Amino acid sequence: MHLYNAWLPPPVAEESKREKESFSFVVKSVKESWQSDDPESVYSTLKWISIIDLFITAKSELSLDDVEALVNVGLEVFHKSENKLYPQVRWGVIIVRLLAKYGKKLTLKVQWRPFYDNFVNTHFTRNAGPEGWRLRQRHFEAVTSLVTSCRKFFPAGSASEIWSEFGSLLENPWHNSSFEGSGFVRLFLPTNLDNQDFFSRDWIQKCIDQWDSIPNCQFWNNQWADIISRCIKSYSSIDWECFFPVLFTRYLNMFEVPVANGSGSYPFSVDAPRNTRFLFQSKAISPAKSIGKSIVYLLKPGSSAQEYFEKLVNLLEQYYHPSNGGRWTYSLERLLHNLVFFFQKRLQREQKNLDDARRAELFLGRSEITAFVKVVLKLIDRGQYSKNESLAETVAVATSVLSYVEPSLVLPFIASRFHMALETTTATHQLRTAVTSVAVCGRALFLASSFETDDVGNADGFVDLLMISLSNILLGMDANDPPKTLATMQLIGSIFSNITVIDDNQGGLLSAVSFSEWLDEFLCRLFSLLQHLEPGNVLNDGIHTSATSGTFLVEDCPYFFCMLEILLGKLSKPLFSQAVKKISKFVKTNILPGAVVEVGLLCCACVHCNPNEAAVHIIEPLLMSVISALSGSPGTGFGGRGTLNGLPSFKVCALNQGSTYHILLYIGQESGPRSK
């Protein structure tokens, strides 16, 4: 049983065990609905697709034999319902989802030729029908995704057949057919174990020569870079050393960074035909993705790939500087993302295959890991202050991942940047970046502080960093500086999510902190922040529509409510009583039409963490305030009890109590069944 299902109520959890039988019934029903000699029967199978989608989404255990049988039936339906684009799109999408979840556990044999025939007949030779271009585009996306998912199941000999089929299109590099040929090779060529005999050093050399035949063409570069990257990942037995100079030169050229005052674009670029670019464009194909994958899987003990990688980074790192931004920033940001992503993925795979003696000599050792992290830190150092939001977020994520891989290098780097930012607090962008870095590496800092080893370094320094963070971070809560405020809340949530219980009497890493005093200061800063928030939307008559809008605390990111839930949920009983009394006093004595949503979420967090005590100190006073405001309001007149004498005073009371109504509304909406 999946861990998620174990939390279900016992009767529901017991019933979920029968989902394997239910799925078998669905597969049987699909087979009965489909008649291979009647293509029109494909429409009777469509009603089962939504049900299959539910089984894919559910966390239930299914029989792999049933999954394999369903994939085979789905492929048969897909191929035999030619020119019926809508059923093909529906079945293509659901097969891709099945293979994404269960593909590594299945043993299928899928032929590539039917996909190619379908692709050509629909998008190359067939005129547009009544279905329209939108459906044709969806069909194209479904076919390409299906080929990408199924090519790992192509049988032995498929790679040779595919190369023979499309190799002739590549003979004349100046003919448009060469672009189609490269697109078909990239799309169909399998790099699985069944076809590994086809790939050799001579064939790689032939591909490199083919790649060099058309210079300065983005489409051409993307196709061949993707092919080479998949070969590098799958066939580590090939000697790639001799290809390093030409590969890394190509990689540098593909980024099109400017030299001196140049624009960075190719001076004499070659464009592929528009129709070819449309047919073979793929969101999964990115030069930065192919380059990052190639570099990571080229790294081996004793290989010179690390040296070439360092030279490439030395040339590119200046363009990560905030002053050197441009249209190339996106591709450089994607490079950093993919370098860290594939490096993490490779390390995970190697840790799971430590007993594989045949490949153990190719696994990365501690020296190779350290060298890689040192080089990537150069890009992080340059890019962490970038004005580009996407690059800044990627740098933060990369820092978080590498802090677990090589904490001895990353954590001291983070600590030094944080201390530097505190010394120059006027540079708010530096403080925000430093705070975000500490936040995303919070758990790694706690782990390093708990286990003092030579690999990590001085654990006392990391404890001091956490204590300094708690002592100084409250200064970052400023209504006039939203980015710094949100980073502050992210750091508070990160620190306290790693603490079991917040109590002044407990020991641990932060035992020297007086949490009672810190909590008072935090609430004081929070109340001041809420009082100075500016409304996000003001009507002409001056009445703020606070029930449907909020400030940057709730519109820009979820850190505000998450921080409150984490902090209040970890407080000990005395500290929670201390906090909820102050919050209750603040809510009762302040009317904040510009921060109704925020105050409502503050009350919701209290209700989530301790419904009983929150009901006494927050919900009851709010309800009494509403009842008191309604005491002089007019009735409906039904039953003879109505009066209109109190109408003017009611208007005044309703205006003053509008915030209270909305706070209670948010408590009811957000709390749900968890509150009492």
From TrEMBL:
GO terms for cellular component: cytosol; nucleus. One of its GO terms (biological process) is proteasomal ubiquitin-independent protein catabolic process. It comes from the Eukaryota. InterPro entries: Blm10_mid, PSME4. GO terms for molecular function: peptidase activator activity; proteasome binding. It holds the Pfam family HEAT_PSME4_mid. Residues 310-503, 511-622 form the Proteasome activator Blm10 middle HEAT repeats region domain. This is Proteasome activator Blm10 middle HEAT repeats region domain-containing protein.
